[in-house]
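Next comes a single protein record:
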Amino acid sequence: MPLTYDNVVSILAEITGMDEDEITPQTTLLDVEMDSLLLAEFDVILAERHGVDLAAGLDLTPETTIADFVHAVAEQSSGAEAAPSVMGAL
């Protein structure tokens, strides 16, 4: 399943207990009470469902918006998917 904004919001709603409609692109990680434990849970779910590992770390602050968070996760997702094809070309 491709990683989309809706997928990320769905996972965030699942782990925070918030309604998906409450999470907008302008919502911050502070608004969803994202802490290191929730981020670790998010990472596990993301790895299971989308094969994306955030272990490399993200540059996040409590003021990071969901739109910025999705963008950062998508960048890591593309990097993770690109690595095998680059290796195969060598």
Q: What stands out?
A: The first helix runs from residue 5 to 16.
